[in-house]
Design goal:
Length: 457
C-alpha cells in the first residue's frame, strides 16, 4: 500500500470534511488528537450535504473510487437514501489514453498490423472510461464494428487502490457508528471481483454472446454480434449498432415511439432473463441501453456492455417468485414461512415475528395506488427485514435487486404510469404454474436423470 496515495486520499477526504461522517468518540485517543490538529479540522463545516461531499471526494480520487461509488449507489439496502441518490450521479468518464498506444495494444494482442486487421480504423476514440476505451472500425468484409481496448497498465493501479479500499473498509467497520451493519469489507470484496472481471474483455464478450443467443428471435431486446476473430482478453470487437439512447426522451417522442409499450417490454425483458434464462444483464442503466425505433409502434431495446451479469439457481428462482407473489397478495405469513422453508433465515426464526415485521413495512406502501408502488423498493424492504432475522447477504440477489431498481426507474421515466405488477404478476404465475405442473416436473426429471444415474452404486 503506497503511503503517498493514502495521504492524498486523506487530504481529499479532509478538504470535503468527510471526517464528519465518522463517530470520533469511537476513535483511539491518539487518532482523535491527530484529527484535532489536522488543517481541515480548523475549517468550518461544509454547507454541502453529506452525500454531495462524499460524491465529490470519490470523484476527485479517480476511476476506481468512482466505480466503487456507482456500485454503492445501488446498495440501497445499506445506505441512507440521500447518500445513495447523490452517489448515483457519479459519471465514469476519464480522458482517453494515447491513440498510438491504443493501436499498439490492439496489434500486440491480435498479433497483426492494424491495417491488416481492419479496412479502416478511427484512431480518435469514440468513448473513454476508467477500464477501457472504444474506437470505430470497419472489418475487411465491410462490417461496421466498434473495438474496445483495455487501458495499458490499469491492473496495478486497480490493485493498489483496492488495497486502500480494504484498509478504509476496515476503518469504517471499526469506527463508524453502525459500521458493522454495512459490512464494508464484504462490499469491497464484491466490488473487487466485479472490477477485475471487467479487465477480461473475453468474459464480457462471452456474456454478450449468451444474451444474444437467448434473445435471437425475440422482439424484446437486441444484443450486438461478437466478432471472435478480433476479440481476446484485452480487445473486444462487436457489431456497431445505431439506436436512440433510452434517456433521450425528446428523440423518442420525435420518432413517435410508443413509450408505454417500450416500458412494459423492459419489465418483460427483465423477468424473462431472470426466470426463463436464469442469466440477466445486471448493469442496465441508461448508458448501456438504446432503442430501435424502426417500428415506433413496436420498439425494442438494444443492450451493450455485458461485463456484469447475474444468475439464480432453480431453488432461488422458485422461492423468489413465490415470495414476490405472496408480498403482492399481502400474505405475510407465507413470506415468513417461505424464508424459513428455503433456509434464507435460520430454522429457529419465529415465523410470527417475521410476519409482523413484514406487515409493518409493507402495509404503508400498499396504501398507495398500485401504479405508484416501487417493486424494487418492496424487494429492498423484504431483504432488509430478512437481514434483521440473520439472512446472509447473497450476491446474486443483490445484483437482481439493483437490476430491478434500474429497470423500474427506466420504465417509469419512459411511462410514469407504468404498473409493474400488471406485467409481472401473470409472468410469475405462469412461470410457477408451468414449472411445477406435471409436465414441468417430468421435464426436470428427464433433464436431471443422467446425473442421478451416475450416482447410483
Amino acid at each position: 500500500m503506497h503511503l503517498s496515495r493514502l495521504l492524498h486520499i486523506l487530504r481529499v477526504a479532509g478538504r470535503y470534511r468527510v471526517d464528519e461522517l465518522v463517530d470520533k468518540e469511537r476513535l483511539p485517543r491518539t487518532l482523535r488528537w491527530a484529527l484535532s490538529l489536522s488543517p481541515w479540522h480548523q475549517k468550518a463545516p461544509s454547507d454541502k450535504s453529506r452525500g454531495e461531499r462524499l460524491r465529490l471526494t470519490l470523484q476527485e480520487l479517480g476511476p476506481v473510487f468512482i466505480k466503487f461509488g456507482q456500485m454503492l449507489s445501488t446498495r440501497r439496502d445499506l445506505l441512507p437514501p440521500d447518500i445513495a441518490d447523490e452517489l448515483a450521479k457519479l459519471q465514469d468518464q476519464v480522458p482517453p489514453f494515447c491513440e498510438d498506444e491504443a493501436v499498439a495494444l490492439i496489434e500486440q494482442h491480435l498479433s497483426k498490423p492494424i491495417d491488416e486487421l481492419f479496412a479502416s480504423f478511427n484512431r480518435a476514440p469514440l468513448a473513454s472510461a476508467s477500464v477501457a476505451q472504444v474506437h470505430e472500425a470497419t472489418l475487411p468484409g465491410g462490417e461496421s464494428v466498434v473495438v474496445k481496448v483495455v487501458r495499458p497498465d490499469i491492473e496495478p493501479v486497480i490493485r493498489q487502490d483496492m488495497a486502500l479500499l480494504y484498509f478504509l473498509a476496515r476503518l469504517l467497520r471499526r469506527f463508524v457508528a453502525d459500521g458493522w451493519r454495512l459490512r464494508p469489507v464484504e462490499v469491497v470484496k464484491d466490488y473487487e471481483l466485479t472490477i477485475l472481471d471487467e479487465l477480461d474483455l473475453s468474459r464480457e464478450a462471452a456474456n454478450a454472446a449468451q444474451l444474444r443467443r437467448n434473445f435471437l428471435d425475440s422482439d424484446l431486446v437486441y444484443v450486438p454480434q461478437v466478432y471472435w476473430d478480433y476479440t481476446c482478453h484485452k480487445v473486444y470487437t462487436m457489431e456497431r449498432i445505431s439506436g436512440i439512447p433510452v434517456s433521450d426522451m425528446a428523440a423518442l417522442k420525435a420518432r413517435k415511439v410508443d413509450l408505454k409499450v417500450l416500458a412494459e417490454k423492459g419489465v418483460t425483458t427483465f423477468f424473462t432473463q431472470v426466470f426463463r434464462d436464469s442469466f440477466f444483464h445486471a448493469d442496465m442503466h441508461p448508458g448501456n441501453i438504446f432503442v430501435d425505433a424502426s417500428d415506433p409502434a413496436n420498439p425494442s431495446y438494444i443492450a451493450v456492455d455485458c461485463a456484469i451479469v447475474g444468475s439464480l439457481s432453480e431453488f432461488d428462482q422458485y422461492y423468489l417468485a413465490r415470495n414476490l407473489l405472496a408480498i403482492f397478495q399481502r400474505d405475510y405469513r407465507q413470506v415468513a414461512q417461505l424464508h424459513v422453508e428455503c433456509g434464507w433465515v435460520p430454522p429457529e426464526t419465529r415465523v410470527q415475528d417475521f410476519e409482523s415485521a413484514m406487515r409493518a413495512v409493507c402495509e404503508p406502501v400498499f396504501e398507495q395506488p398500485l401504479a405508484k408502488i416501487s417493486f424494487g423498493q418492496l424487494l429492498i424492504y423484504l431483504f432488509n427485514t430478512a437481514r434483521r432475522f440473520d439472512m446472509e447477504v447473497q450476491p446474486s440477489l443483490v445484483l437482481l435487486q439493483k437490476t430491478l431498481l434500474n429497470i423500474e426507474g427506466l420504465g417509469r421515466q419512459l411511462y410514469p404510469d407504468l404498473n409493474l405488477w400488471d406485467t409481472a404478476q401473470p409472468f410469475l404465475e405462469d412461470w410457477v404454474g408451468q414449472r411445477y405442473s406435471p409436465q414441468g416436473l417430468l421435464e426436470r426429471l428427464q433433464r436431471q436423470a443422467p446425473s442421478w444415474m451416475e450416482q447410483l452404486p
